[in-house]
Amino acid sequence: MTDTQRARIEALLPDRTPKRGGRWRDHREVIDAIAWKIQTGAQWVQLPEKYANWRGVYNRLRMWSADGTWERVFTALLAQADADEELHWVVSVDSTIVRAHQHATGARKRGLLPWPVLRCRPGR
């Protein structure tokens, strides 16, 4: 994350001193770790050591998702980009139709079964 990007979102991020425990790791490092994980698609345990413990990064991602931090950051960045006229909307509509063969749908070949269906043998 660049210094300019950090300056845009710094005020929107929570205080670095949580209610319990010690002081949090720098938000910039955690956001870089989250971005690395999303870009690579790797598992959390494969997070490089330079980004610290993967559990801390994962927990911060979860907390920020639950308390609305990510939504607040996204909304503010979107509004700022729209106000600066840096936002160009592109709408794409996909009208692809995928058809399956009739046998792939699981339909019966001989019509519907009578209701109710009793499949037990007489005498049992």
Automatic annotation (TrEMBL):
It comes from the Bacteria. Residues 1-74 form the Insertion element IS402-like domain. Pfam families: DUF4096. InterPro entries: IS402-like_dom, Transposase_6_like. This is IS5 family transposase. It comes from Streptacidiphilus fuscans.
